[in-house]
Amino acid sequence: MALDFGSLFGKKNPPLIGLDISSSGVKLVELSEVGKNELRLECFASEPLPRGAVVDGNIENIDQVSDAVLRVWKKSGTRAKVAAMGMPPASVITKKIILPSNLSEEGLELQVETEASQYIPFALDEVRLDFDVIGLVDNSPDDVEVMLAATRKEKVEDRVAVAEAAGLKPTIMDIESYAARAAISRLTEQMPNRAKGQILALFQIGSQVMHVSMLLDDQLIYEREQPFGGHQLTQEIVRTYGLSYEEAEVKKRNNDLPDGYQTEILEPFLETAAQEVTRAIQFFFTSTPYTRVDQLFLAGGCAIIPGMVDTVANRTKLSASVVSPFKGMQLSSNVREKQLRIEAPAYLVACGLAMRRFDR
Ligand SMILES: Nc1ncnc2c1ncn2[C@@H]1O[C@H](COP(=O)(O)OP(=O)(O)OP(=O)(O)O)[C@@H](O)[C@H]1O
Ligand SMILES: [Mg+2]
Questions:
Q1: Whose CA is nearest to atom 22 of ligand 1?
Q2: Using CA atoms, how far apart are residues 142 and 136, in angstroms rounded to an integer?
Q3: Spatial CB neighbours of 230, under 8 Å, sequence gap ≥ 6
Q4: β-strand 25-35 against 38-48: which pairing, if any?
Q5: Which atom of ligand 1 sits closest to the CA of residue 349?
Q6: pLDDT of 143-176, one tens digit each?
């Protein structure tokens, strides 16, 4: 008798899409489970956003963003309407606290609110508060470690409004950096010895910001954001060739620019990027007890640029690779493999959000 994986795995985890909204555009990913720990990429798609629609992770124009969400949903071919979304890490305050392990659910909630008011610089009624019990504290069985997450209500509400206006049902609000980490953990599990004891530096270079995180044994040991990204390169193209921003963006992605672009614009940009990475690593060393990085991963749209990973590897003298978040997954027949190979590094967060479907 054949096993019906559909009913074993499918129903328990109803379809969910990961929806990543950031300054350059909206990205969607849907995953399914086809066996134990075996995932399949059902579909992925992205749609650009007009400039100014999302700035610093804030949704400035709900209509423009929800239009893009609706377009990306249609384009992807998914039928799932339930969505996991992410908040930009800068808009969320997280804090680990220790509480007695014998509290009831309500007791825990109350205690969390009391503790939270000490750490959160705005009135609690303006705040969406969430918490997660991480587990017992080592050597102290009477205590549990609890992770608090707080964000301004209006920021969550804007994202919910965008999804609902596009006909979607947002049920999970994650933090973008947590989603990225979940997607990375799936990859480190496939590495020799699960990369145990190694310090992994993840650089997500997007349009406006470069997000730096350092990971050790699946734990985030350091996190920082720097204003740097592909926007700067597009601006330079606009200035040099007198193109509109949108034209420059398209020509940049298609590598459709005059002779001279490579040496006069692209290479200096890659050098600057490598310098930013080097400086961020130095800063990690000076502001933490850590003194080494074992491997470097690049993700985000700028990781796709030809020459980026080599320039970064040369400058930092580290082993560097481009993250491919769907590595080891089966691919649905709808997935265009060539496009996937090129664009995958930009889908790290969307992939991590889509993985929330399998939380148990
Ligand atoms: N094929 C490509 N070649 C060159 N640049 C690319 C390519 N694909 C994407 N980019 C650049 O990557 C950037 C977008 O990356 P990503 O999608 O990770 O950003 P984002 O998450 O929207 O931005 P941010 O995190 O800053 O809000 C843009 O500047 C875009 O021009
Ligand atoms: Mg981003």
A1: 24
A2: 8
A3: 24, 205, 206, 207, 252, 301, 302, 305
A4: antiparallel
A5: 21
A6: 998 888 888 888 899 999 999 999 999 999 999 9
Q: Where are the beta strands (DSSP E) in the chain?
A: 17-21, 25-35, 38-48, 54-55, 58-59, 82-87, 92-100, 127-137, 140-152, 169-175, 199-205, 210-216, 219-226, 295-299, 320-322, 330-331
Token reading at 309: 């990973």
Note whether 245 and 238 are within 8 A (CB). Answer: yes
Residue 226 contacts residue 208 (beta carbons within 8 Å): no
Are 328 and 190 in contact by the 8 Å Cβ rule? The answer is: yes
pTM equals 0.90
Closest C-alpha to ligand 1, atom 31: 230
Q: Is the CB of 120 under 6 A from ligand 1?
A: no
Q: Which pLDDT tens digit goes with each residue over 60-81?
A: 999 999 999 999 999 999 999 9
- Ligand 1 atom with the shortest distance to the CA of 300: 18
From 22, 72, 236, 254, mutation site for ligand 1 pocket: most ligand atoms within 8 A of C-beta? 22
**Rounded CA Rg of the chain:** 21
pLDDT score recorded for residue 5:
41
* Closest C-alpha to 328, from 187, 203, 183: 187
The answer, yes or no, to whether any atom of ligand 1 lies below 6 A from the CB of 89, is no
**What are the two backbone dihedrals, phi and then psi, of residue 47, each rounded to the nearest 5 degrees?**
-140, 135
With a 6 Å cutoff on the Cβ, whether 22 touches ligand 1 is: yes
pLDDT lower than 50: segments of the chain:
1-10
| CA nearest to 163, candidates 16, 50, 32 | 16
125 C-alpha to ligand 1 centroid (Å) = 36
Distance (Å) from CA 273 to ligand 1 centroid: 13
Q: Which amino acid is at 103?
A: L
Specify whether the CB–CB gap between 34 and 9 falls below 8 A. Answer: yes
